[in-house]
């Protein structure tokens, strides 16, 4: 608060002197050495919000170079010399320099505190965790305002490789850039990693296990450039991976498993996400879905209409899900291609194309503002009315060997619905608008198994009527036998019908009718199969080319 008019100059001078004295005391307190014991006497104070706004969490302009290697499909780390901070949970000391293994700190909290906050880094940091168990008391838990760059990231890494540094508390991150977690194990009964308003986050070659206490093992929201690679992620009563309003990134080469709801989804207007080469299994509601349902206030402009945009789901193996192996719930330009689904849909169906949900979870002012900006939604509880448009399901294998079958049908395709008045959504919201299903090999029950069409993919639908789908796919006419799926060998077996069945060409995405302001997403690549083997021409259906 400013001084009131009429104050004397002497009073103002006294006030300035007092303020300066208090600032000196605060500076001395901040610069004092930590406790000389094996652990800090207390947790460091929470980082104060920055005086200036952090870098915006928005995707770069079209044409910016991709940080993903075109051959390996992995995020490329490229940085200058880093400052090393060593940590040892058994013999470290938080008064040490941390500059070498024999001068290790004891807590990750202290290492994190030494990374400058609320400023763009000019030199990066590598926090090296020596073997051992890091309890929650040694972790910062809430980690915020560390703004790395591609040349100056913040890396937290197990010094001796995967499985050697075990964290038994969670990492909760806010407004942080270029944070890379390498070779870590986070093992606890609860959520393991949460990132909000983050950019360029990499999780690689790690194990994150939420046990029986996690709601979501990994949750990322209102963030961009998120990359999860070659990791083992599971244990949740909701989802192993939950992306809400995440723009640009991939989920690649992971094991994603043991969640009661969907194993993973990207929703809330998420865009430009590739889900490739994963093994997704042992989940309840389903494997992976593009879109689902979101509180309107948690979405970001301009992605305020559909639940998901430009999502590519390729080369995955999905098995042993009670519900659908794959789905689209309110997606625009979603490609699901070259996946292998095995023993899926025991309680329902194999694949679903249904509406996404939209409601307002309490912040009615933001919901109203999003509606005024052209979004689809209301300020009340809402409903399930977000349509799908331009969805392609092509060249996949669905294999439910007898006696395993889906409970009801092959597909679930919702019929048209009428959105709430004033929501802004199309007056007739369709889940099958330009839905294309072709090139798939489906083995699930016998000829009596229902396709699941009716109001959705009706006979009048120009792209996915039942007659079209039966013509364009091998439905219970070709058994796609696999080499040894019960022991994780998913390649087509010798003599499998897949040996002689060829895939069909997939058209590129069109963004001509995308909502205003939504940026175009580059067409996905599926030139190689899950093992990296090149597909000749369009190749064969499924995640693996025949040997």
From TrEMBL:
PROSITE patterns: PROKAR_LIPOPROTEIN
Feature: compositional bias, Pro residues: 42-58
Cross-referenced InterPro entries: Beta_helix, PbH1, Pectin_lyas_fold, Pectin_lyase_fold/virulence
Domain Right handed beta helix as annotated: residue spans: 194-358
One Pfam family, short name: Beta_helix
Region (Disordered): 33-67
Record-given protein name: Unannotated protein
Source organism of this protein record: freshwater metagenome
């Amino acid at each position: 608060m400013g001084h009131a008019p009429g104050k004397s100059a002497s009073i103002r001078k006294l006030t300035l002197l007092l303020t300066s004295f208090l600032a000196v005391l605060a500076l001395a307190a901040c610069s004092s050495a930590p406790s000389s014991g094996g652990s800090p006497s207390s947790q460091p104070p929470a980082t104060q919000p920055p005086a200036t706004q952090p870098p915006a969490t928005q995707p770069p302009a079209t044409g910016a170079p991709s940080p993903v290697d075109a051959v390996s499909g992995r995020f490329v780390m490229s940085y200058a010399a880093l400052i090393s901070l060593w940590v040892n949970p058994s013999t470290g000391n938080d008064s040490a320099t941390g500059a070498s293994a024999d001068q290790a700190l004891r807590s990750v909290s202290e290492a994190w505190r030494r990374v400058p906050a609320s400023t763009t880094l000019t030199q990066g940091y590598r926090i090296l965790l020596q073997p051992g168990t890091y309890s929650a008391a040694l972790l910062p838990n809430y980690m915020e305002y560390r703004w790395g760059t591609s040349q100056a990231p913040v890396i937290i890494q197990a010094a001796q490789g995967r499985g050697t540094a075990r964290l038994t508390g969670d990492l909760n991150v806010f407004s942080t850039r270029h944070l890379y977690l390498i070779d870590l194990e986070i093992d606890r009964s609860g959520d393991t990693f949460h990132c909000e308003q983050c950019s360029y986050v990499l999780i690689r070659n790690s194990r994150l296990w939420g046990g029986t206490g996690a709601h979501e093992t990994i949750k990322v929201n209102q963030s961009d450039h998120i990359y999860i690679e070659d990791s083992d992620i599971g244990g949740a009563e909701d989802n192993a991976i939950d992306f809400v309003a995440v723009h640009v990134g991939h989920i690649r080469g992971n094991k994603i498993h043991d969640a009661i709801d969907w194993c993973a989804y990207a929703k809330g207007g998420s865009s430009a996400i590739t889900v490739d080469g994963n093994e997704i299994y042992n989940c309840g509601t389903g494997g992976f879905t593009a879109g689902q349902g979101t509180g309107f206030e948690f979405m970001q402009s301009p992605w305020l209409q559909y639940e998901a945009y430009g999502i590519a789901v390729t080369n995955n193996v999905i098995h042993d899900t009670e519900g659908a192996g794959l789905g689209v719930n309110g997606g625009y330009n979603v490609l699901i291609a070259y996946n292998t689904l095995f023993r899926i849909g025991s309680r329902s169906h194999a694949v679903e194309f249904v509406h996404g949900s939209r409601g307002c979870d309490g912040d009615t002012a933001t919901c109203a503002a999003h509606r005024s900006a052209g979004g689809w939604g209301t300020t009340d509880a809402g409903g399930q009315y977000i349509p799908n448009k331009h969805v392609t399901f092509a060249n996949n294998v669905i294999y439910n060997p007898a006696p395993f079958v889906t409970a009801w049908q092959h597909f679930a395709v919702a019929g048209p619905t009428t959105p709430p008045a004033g929501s802004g959504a199309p007056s007739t919201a369709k889940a099958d608008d330009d839905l294309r299903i072709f090139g798939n090999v489906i083995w699930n029950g016998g000829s009596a198994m229902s396709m699941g069409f009716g109001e959705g993919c009706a006979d009048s639908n120009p792209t996915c009527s039942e007659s079209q789908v039966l013509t364009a796919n091998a439905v219970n006419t070709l058994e796609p036998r696999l080499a040894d799926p019960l022991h994780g060998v998913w390649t087509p077996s010798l003599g499998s019908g897949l040996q002689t069945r060829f895939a069909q060409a997939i058209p590129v995405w069109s963004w001509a009718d995308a909502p205003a302001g939504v940026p175009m997403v580059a067409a996905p690549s599926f030139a190689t199969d899950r093992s990296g083997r090149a597909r000749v021409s369009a190749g064969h259906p499924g995640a693996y080319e025949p040997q």
